[in-house]
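so i finally got all the pieces together for this one. its two components total, 538 residues if u count the protein bits. some of the lines might not be protein, just check the labels. i wanna see the whole assembly predicted at once instead of chain by chain like last time, that was a mess tbh
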Amino acid sequence: MSNNYLDIIRPGINTTFQDKGRNHLYHIGIPFSGAMDNRNYLIANKLVNNKLDAAVIEFAYQGPYIKYTGEKINFAVTGDVIFTIKKKDTKIEGNCYQSYQIERGDEINIISTNKSVYGYLALGGELDLKFQWNSCSINTKANIGSNDGKKLEAGQRINFKKINSNKDIKKTNYINTKIENIRVMKGTNFDYFSEHGKQIFYEKEFIVSKLSDRMGMRLEGPKIENIVNTNIKSEGLIKGVIQVPADGNPIIMLSDHGTVGGYPKIGAVASVDYDRLVQMAPGSKIKFKEINLSDAETLFKLYEIETQILLSQI
Amino acid sequence: MIKNISNLGDAALYCDFGNEVNKSINSKVIKYFKAIKEKKFEGINNLTPSYNKLIISYDLKKINFKEVKKFVENINIEDSEKTNSKKLEIPVCCHENFSMDIKRLEEILKLSREKILENFLNKEYFCYMTGFIAGMPFLGDLDENMRAQRLETPRVKVPKGSVALTEQFANIYTFESPGGWNILGNTPLKVFDSSKEDKPNLINPGDTVIFKEITLDHYKNFNE
C-alpha cells in the first residue's frame, strides 16, 4: 500500500493520464495518443521537477476535483485554466505556470479551461500506472494504456510510486497565444476538389464543431466540393491530416485518430501549429493558410527551439 | 517499385505504389514495410502499409523529409524475398443473432442466404492491411457477385467480433465501433489482444484467412 495517493472526487469530462505517446504501432491500428498540447505537457512536468516524459493528468473543459493524502508534494497546472486550492479552511485561486506545495488533506479543484480545450495537471512524483508499449497514455477507443484504457472516474484512488525529493517551487511567465490562421500543406488528394472548393478551403472561415474530441476535430462551414470521388481506397493517416468526406465538411485528424481512412485528403496541418490547433474550442473560427514544406520545417524548428528555451528557463 | 514519393504534411512520407488493389502491389508494399521496419532508422516513428500506399511518419525534431526520402530510395527489395506469413482459420457464427445485414445482402446481391454463405465461407482471403481500429484486418478479395456497397447510414455501434463485407473486402470489428459495413456474422475469437505487446494482432498483413462456420452452441461455449 502506498502512503501517498490521490482520491478523485469529481473526474471532469474527459480526464486521462497522458505522456509522450507510443510509436511503431500504426501498422497494427494503434495511434500515437499522448498529450494533445505537447508544449504545455512538457512545461507542466518541468514545473514540478519531473522527468519531461512523465505521466500527467490531461483534462478537457472541466477538470478533476482531487483530494491528496500523503507527504508534501508539488503540483502545477498548465494551459489556460481556472482552478482553486483548498488547504484546511482557506481556499485560494490558483495560477497556471507556477508550482504549489500541497500536503495531507489538501484539495485541488480544476473548474474549467478558459476559451481553450486542454489543460495539464502535473504532480511532483511518479504515479503508479500501467504501461503498454512504453506509454501510460490512455486510448479510450481501444482501451489501451493505464487505468484499463478508460477515463478517470469518481471514487478512484491513484497511488504514487514515489515523490520527488526536489521540492523547489518554480514559476514561469508563459502566455498561450491564440491563432486563427492554421497553416497547411496541400494534401495528397488536393486535386479531387473543384477550383471553387479549393478557394473555399483557403479563403473562408470554418467553425470548430462540438463533435470534436481526441480523435478528430470536425469543422462546419461552406461545403468543399469534390469533383473526382468522395471515397478513396483506405490508406494511412497521420495527425494533422484534413479529410473531407462526402458531406463537404473537413475533419482534422488528432492524436487518437484512426490509423487508416478512406476520405480524400485536402491538406495537412503544419506541425508548428498543432499545439495551438488542438486548443481551439467548439465555436472558434478557423482559417487555413497555405505554407510550403520547407517553410513548415523551418517554422517547426524555431518553435522547438522556443520550447527548449522556455523549459531551460524553468 | 515505388511509383512516387511525396510529403504528407511536414512529418510523413507518402509512398505511392499505384492505384490498383491487388495482391501483387500489396505484397510490394508489405515488403517495403518489413524492410524499413527492420532497419530501425532513427527518427522514423510509424509505418502504415495499406492496399497500395505506405505512409512513413517521422519525428521532425530529429529528421526531415529529404533525409527520410533518401533513406527509402536506397532500400533494395529482393523480388524473390520470402515473407513469413501465416494461414489462419477464423470461426464465424452466422446465426440470425449476428448476421444483421443478411436480408440487405440477399436483396442487393440477389442471392439466397445459403448461397451467400457458400460463396463466403471456406475460401482463402488475403490480409492487405490492419488498422482503422486496433487489429482490424482488411481482407480480400470477395467474389464479383458478393460485392455490396456500405450502408447508406453507418451504424453507431457495430458489435465487437462482427464479420462484415463491403465491395471486394471483408473485415472483423476488433472493438465495438461505429461502422457501415454489411454484417454477416460474428467470431468469438480474440483478434486483438493488447496484453500481448509483442503480437497483439492475430492477423497481420500478408496472412491468409479462411472463415469456417460454427453453430450458435459452439459459439457460446467457445474456448480459444
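Chain A has two domains: 5-163, 181-312.
The longest strand of chain A covers residues 81-87.
anyway lmk what u think
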